[in-house]
Amino acid sequence: MSTSVNSTPVNEKDEQVFQDLKLLNAVNDRYGGVIVEVREAMDSALFGSVLRASIAQWRHQGKKGVWIKLPIQHVNLVEAAVKEGFWFHHAEPNYLMLCYWIPEGTHTLPANASHRIGISAFVMNEKREVLVVQESTGRFQGTGVWKFPTGVVNEGEDICAAAVREVKEETAVDTKFIEILAFRQSHKALFDKSDIFFLCLLEPLS
Amino acid sequence: MSTSVNSTPVNEKDEQVFQDLKLLNAVNDRYGGVIVEVREAMDSALFGSVLRASIAQWRHQGKKGVWIKLPIQHVNLVEAAVKEGFWFHHAEPNYLMLCYWIPEGTHTLPANASHRIGISAFVMNEKREVLVVQESTGRFQGTGVWKFPTGVVNEGEDICAAAVREVKEETAVDTKFIEILAFRQSHKALFDKSDIFFLCLLEPLS
Predict the structure, then answer these.
(1) Which of residues 33 through 62 in chain A touch B, CB cutoff 8 A?
(2) Does the UniProt entry include the keyword Hydrolase (chains A, B) (predicted)?
(3) pLDDT greater at residue A194 or residue A16
(4) How far is A114 from chain B (nearest CA, A)?
(5) Taking chain B, what is the end-to-end CA distance rounded to the nearest angstrom?
(6) Is A110's Cβ below 8 Å from some Cβ in B?
(7) In this predicted model, what pLDDT tens digit does every residue of B96-109 receive, in sequence order?
(8) What pTM value is reported for the model?
C-alpha cells in the first residue's frame, strides 16, 4: 500500500511540509513498518527534505521501522539518509539497505545474515580410497599437505549440492551426496562473521 | 604495511598525481590485495582524487582486490568511491565495506555472509511434559496455536547457548542443552538470505 498525504497533520509546520512536498512512496511491511525502494534518480537535498516530511507522516501514522533500499546507482542519496538518522542494515553488491526506528526505545529490527556456510567432502570409493587435494592458493599452498576438497556454500545453494559442486570443480570427479557426518560452528571468522562447516560423505560416480 | 609514494611511476600523468597527492594508507591482505580503513574526516572531492591516484599505484604494484572500510560518520565519501568503480560488499550498522578489483577478468573476492541461523527448543521433563508457548506477535498471534520456543542465533552466539537463552526469554525456564535432533536449510528467507534451523533437545533445570 502506498502512503499518501495525510489530511490531519500533527502541527502547522508539518502541515506546511506535507503541502509542499510529494512524500516518498512506501509499502507497509507485516510488522507495522514501511519499506521505501528508491527507483528514480533524485537530487540529494530534495531527497533529504522529502524523507524528513515522510518520517513526520509515518510517525503520525504510528509506524515503527523504516527501510530504504537504495540501488547503487542512487548512491548520491546515502549521505542524506544518514543525516536524517538512518543507519546501515546490510548491503549487497548492487544495493544498500538503510533503516530507521521511529518509536521511543530500542529497535526490534531483525539482524543481518550472520553466518557463512562451508563444506568439506569425504569421497571414498569401494576400495576405501579417499579423494584428497593440495591447495594451489591459501594457507596450505606449497606445504605438501593433502586435504579433503572444501569450499563455501553459495548464496541460495543447498549444502549437498555445494559438496558435489566443489568436488567437481577441484578434482573433476562426479559424486553423489550420501550424508552429513559432522559439523562445527565457529565465530569471528571472515569479516567477524560466524561460520558453520559441514563434513559431507559422498560416493564417486566416475 | 602502509603504502608509500612509488619511486618508479607508470607514466608522466601518474607521476604528477603521485607527487601532488598523499596516497591512502593501506595494509596488505593475505591474498595480494589491500585494505583501507578510513579513520579521519575528508573532503569527498579530495578523497576521489586520492583514491584514483592510489588505485594507479596499487595497479602498478600488481595488487588485486581493494577493500575500503568506511565508518558511517564518513558517509560523505561513499559516492566518491562508487564513482571510482567501487561496489558495496557488505554493511553493518556502523560501517560500509566497499570493494574494487584491479586485474582484468572476474573478481575472486569472497562473498558476504549468506545465512541466518534459527533454533527451536524441544524441552521435555521427566513426566514427558513438553514446554510450549503461544506467539504474542507474528504469524501465529491470536490463532490459539501452541509451538516450541524458537528464535534467531545472535551474532557470535553458539547454537546451544541460543537455545537456552530463547527458552529463558520466552518462558523464564532454565534449561540444559542436550543435543541437536534435526536441522533443515531453506532459501529466499528474510532479505533473500538462506536459513538453517536447528531443532534442539533441552532438559528443564527449574
Answers:
(1) none
(2) yes
(3) A194
(4) 6
(5) 55
(6) yes
(7) 999 999 999 999 99
(8) 0.83
